[in-house]
Design a protein that fits this description.
The protein contains nine helices and no strands.
């Protein structure tokens, strides 16, 4: 099925103001509430869909995350295979994590050079000569990642993951109410983001690496 568009569900455009979204939501809840539509079999599902859409785009932080994960600069192409949808989401989250840590490290040249010194020492011990040994660099990047991740960054990551999980559930990657499935999905998305952060550090080290 095509990706669910929360703006379309609420009947508003992506440029709609927060107030317009709130008004549209209230109107839809009034019109489609099961108590007002006792003979409609899909009334419960419809109101659930409306509530999920408003939970995401009615919250400014979640809305920004949703827009970034859904479109970036261009609207997403429609996809049918849930596996493809999940792979794309993992790629987006990996890239978010990568850019985040890379941007920090390239500004801290002193720390980068200090880390490269340690990496070189380990590489020489392991193989007898200096080279950019990827698994050594990646392992070191994972060790020092916590030195750069702030509470604010963790909060932003959690908002992205929360929105990503809701998007994946809405698009059929796992069933709503399947706690173990959702937990596994969340872990997979968090791993993608974490791997992106590690790769961002490693990329910064590689940028400054000069073989001796």
């Amino acid at each position: 099925m095509p990706p669910m568009n929360y703006y379309e569900i609420l009947g508003v455009s992506r440029e709609a103001s927060d107030e317009d979204i709130k008004k549209a939501y209230r109107k839809l809840v009034f019109e489609h509430h099961p108590d007002r539509n006792p003979h409609k079999k899909d009334a419960d599902e419809r109101i659930r869909e409306i509530n999920v859409a408003y939970e995401i785009v009615g919250d400014s932080e979640k809305r920004r995350s949703y827009d970034r994960l859904s479109w970036g600069d261009e609207p997403r192409a429609e996809r049918i295979d849930p596996g493809i949808i999940l792979d794309e989401m993992e790629r987006k989250l990996f890239d978010e994590g990568r850019k985040e840590l890379f941007a920090i490290l390239v500004k801290d040249v002193k720390r980068v050079k200090a880390e490269l010194t340690l990496v070189r020492e380990q590489v020489v011990v392991e193989q007898g000569y200096d080279s950019f040994l990827e698994h050594v660099v990646t392992a070191r990047a994972a060790e020092i990642m916590g030195d750069f991740v702030t509470e604010e960054m963790e909060g932003r990551k959690q908002r992205l993951i929360e929105v990503a999980v809701e998007m994946m559930v809405s698009q059929g990657v796992t069933k709503r109410g399947d706690e173990s499935g959702i937990r596994a999905l969340r872990n997979r998305l968090e791993t993608a983001f974490r791997n992106g952060r590690v790769h961002g550090i490693a990329s910064a080290l590689e940028l400054f690496y000069e073989r001796r």
